[in-house]
Every structure is written in C-alpha cells, then in structure tokens.
C-alpha cells in the first residue's frame, strides 16, 4: 500500500507545482494519466488478479462516458448523479453480457470479450438518434458539486485525483481480501478452485461486473473533464492500450498498472517533438520492455528485491507476507 500512496502523492504535487508556472496543459495530461490509471487498475482486477484475458474493456469505458454525457445534455443531470449512473450503467451492461459468456475459458473468453467490445463500439458509432454517431456528444455543463461549480484547473484536477484515489483504494482492498484470494485461485487453476467449492462462474460474473463499474466511472470522468465524447475514443485500440499498461507495469501488480498507465500516457507527450515517430518509439519501448522484462517493470524490481533478500535467508524459505503483500 505504501508504493500506492507514494504514487498518489507524486501525482498530487507535480501538477500543482507546474500550475505555479502557468502551465495548465499539464493539468490535462495529469488528469488523463489518472483516468487511465483507474481504467488500468479496473482491468487489473479481471486480467491481473483473476487471470481472464479481457479485450473489450474500452467498450464499458465508453458506455460510462456516453451515459454521463447524455444525462448531462438531454436530462440536465449534473456530476453528482451522472457519475454513479455511468458506473451503474456500465456494470448493468457487463452483467447482462457476462451471463452467457462467463462459462468460456482461455482464448474463447478473450475472443468473446473482443466481440462484445466491437459490438458496443459499433452501437456507439451507428446509433445516431441517441449517440449522435461519429459527431459525438458535447457536454457543456462541466462539473457542479451540490450547486457549487468546479471550474479552476486545480480544483478539477484534485477532484479527479480524489475520486481516482478512492476508487483505486476500493479495488486495492478488494484484491487483497479473501475475495481477492478467490480471484487468484481462478488465475492459478480454475478447475482446482471449482473442485474446492469456489463458484467460478459466479465469481467471473461478479469480477467482470465490478471491473466494468469502475471503467464506467473512468469514462464519466473523461466526459466531464474533456466536455466531449466520440466513438473513436473507445475502440479496440484503447482496449489494447490499457492491456499494454498492465503488462508493461507488471501483470498482477496493482501499483504496476498505475506505473504502466503513467508511462504509456506520458511517453508520447514527452516525445511529441518528433512528430509521428513518437508512436514508433512508444511501440519500441513496449516491445523491449515485454521482451526483456516479461514480468513487467514492477514485477522485475520486486523479483530482484526478493533475490537480494533471499541471500540472507535459508535456501528454499518462502518470502514473508510483507515482501509480497503490497503487490
């Protein structure tokens, strides 16, 4: 939990310092990092903890964004109602589509989630009467908390940071509880877990739904901070980007998902000066990290730390709970 708190403190202080120099653009980048960090951590619950390869996560991110934007423009519901409604709508849709698909395993589950993501993206793109099709939806209402408008970049950033921190804390406690142990039993051997009395199908449906809820929250934050949503932001490329974040950071590591999100969002911004070549450079970094750091950035650091500590232990002794419990 300590590395998680350190990361959140860093993200809280850096943009505040940049604001002193009048660089409001960095607030937008920092908000984007936070939103994608929540998106990556929510996917970590399904793919990292439960071991289910989910290739359609961006679709529920898009559902949350569209629900928040449409409630704000069509029904004039503000941030206080739109945010939870976005999460609940994404969770409800995930629950419905999970019922017939959660009995699938391995690559069949991955293909099913890919198909679900593509179907939802197609609906967002072509249901012009509701989603406005390729034109997207403009959200002009901004963020309003119980009658108090939140307008300054500093206030908006810290509101987003607080909500993301709270969401990540909930996901952290969930993945480090007895429920999280049950999820990890699915990852290690779902047949053995089923033989031990774990209702694997029910567990898959639950974790899929919870993950979609927080993806919907991330989508609502995206809609309220950018003021515009369009189908292009929630396609298959976004799902792969989020999956790459948790792989590069360290599959199965919650802080690693946050680090992966920060790296893959900030790196293109740092390389903006080289134009379109930045996408090539980002691809090279991802390829090299996966090739030479198969456990991810945080996974390799953790492994090296355990090796160093192992020299002071008897061979064959297991690492303590403190050494591995923060992952």
Spans with pLDDT under 50 lasting ≥5 residues? 310-327
- Biggest β-sheet: strands ordered side by side in the sheet: 1-4
Mean pLDDT: 80
Helix content: over 70%
What's the total number of strands?
4
Structure description:
- The chain is mostly helical and 327 residues long.
- Helix content is 74%, strand content 3%.
- The strands form two sheets. The protein has a two-stranded antiparallel ribbon with strand order 1-4.
- GO terms for molecular function: branched-chain amino acid transmembrane transporter activity.
Please provide a brief summary of the model.
The chain contains 14 helices and 4 strands.
Break the fold down into its secondary structure elements and pairings:
Layout: H1 2-19, H2 25-49, H3 57-74, H4 79-101, H5 106-126, H6 128-131, E1 137-138, E2 143-145, E3 148-150, H7 153-175, H8 178-195, H9 200-226, E4 228-229, H10 236-250, H11 254-270, H12 277-292, H13 297-310, H14 321-324
Antiparallel strand pairs: 1-4, 2-3
Helix pairs in contact: 1-2, 1-7, 2-7, 2-8, 2-9, 2-10, 2-11, 3-4, 3-5, 3-9, 4-9, 7-9, 8-9, 10-11
Protein name: Branched-chain amino acid ABC transporter permease
Keywords: Cell membrane, Membrane, Transmembrane, Transmembrane helix
GO molecular function: branched-chain amino acid transmembrane transporter activity
């Amino acid at each position: 939990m300590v590395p998680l708190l350190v990361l959140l403190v860093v993200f809280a202080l850096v943009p505040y310092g940049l604001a002193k120099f009048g660089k409001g653009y960095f607030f937008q980048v920092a908000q984007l990092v936070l939103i994608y960090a929540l998106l990556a951590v929510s996917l970590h619950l399904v793919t990292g903890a439960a071991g289910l390869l989910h290739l359609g996560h961006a679709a529920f991110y898009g559902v949350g964004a569209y629900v928040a934007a449409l409630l704000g423009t069509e029904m004039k519901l503000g941030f206080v109602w739109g945010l939870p409604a976005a999460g609940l709508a994404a969770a409800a849709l995930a629950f419905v589509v999970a019922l017939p698909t959660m009995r699938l395993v391995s690559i069949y589950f991955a293909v099913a989630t890919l198909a679900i993501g593509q179907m939802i993206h197609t609906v967002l793109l072509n249901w012009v009467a509701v989603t406005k099709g390729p034109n997207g939806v403009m959200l002009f209402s901004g963020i309003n908390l119980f009658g108090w408008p939140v307008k300054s970049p500093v206030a908006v950033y810290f509101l987003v940071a607080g909500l993301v921190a709270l969401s990540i804390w909930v996901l952290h406690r969930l993945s480090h509880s007895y429920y999280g142990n049950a999820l990890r039993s699915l990852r290690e051997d779902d047949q053995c877990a089923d033989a031990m009395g774990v209702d694997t199908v029910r567990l898959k449906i639950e974790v899929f739904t919870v993950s979609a809820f927080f993806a919907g929250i991330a989508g609502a934050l995206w809609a309220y901070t950018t003021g515009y949503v369009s189908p292009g932001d929630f396609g298959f490329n976004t799902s792969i980007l989020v999956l790459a974040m948790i792989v590069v950071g360290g599959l199965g590591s919650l802080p690693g998902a946050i680090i992966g999100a920060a790296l893959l969002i900030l790196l293109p911004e740092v390389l903006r000066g080289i134009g379109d070549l930045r996408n090539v450079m980002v691809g090279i970094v991802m390829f090299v990290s996966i090739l030479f750091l198969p456990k991810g950035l945080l996974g390799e650091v953790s492994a090296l730390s355990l090796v160093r500590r192992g020299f002071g232990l008897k061979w064959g002794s297991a690492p303590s709970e403190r050494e591995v419990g923060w992952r």
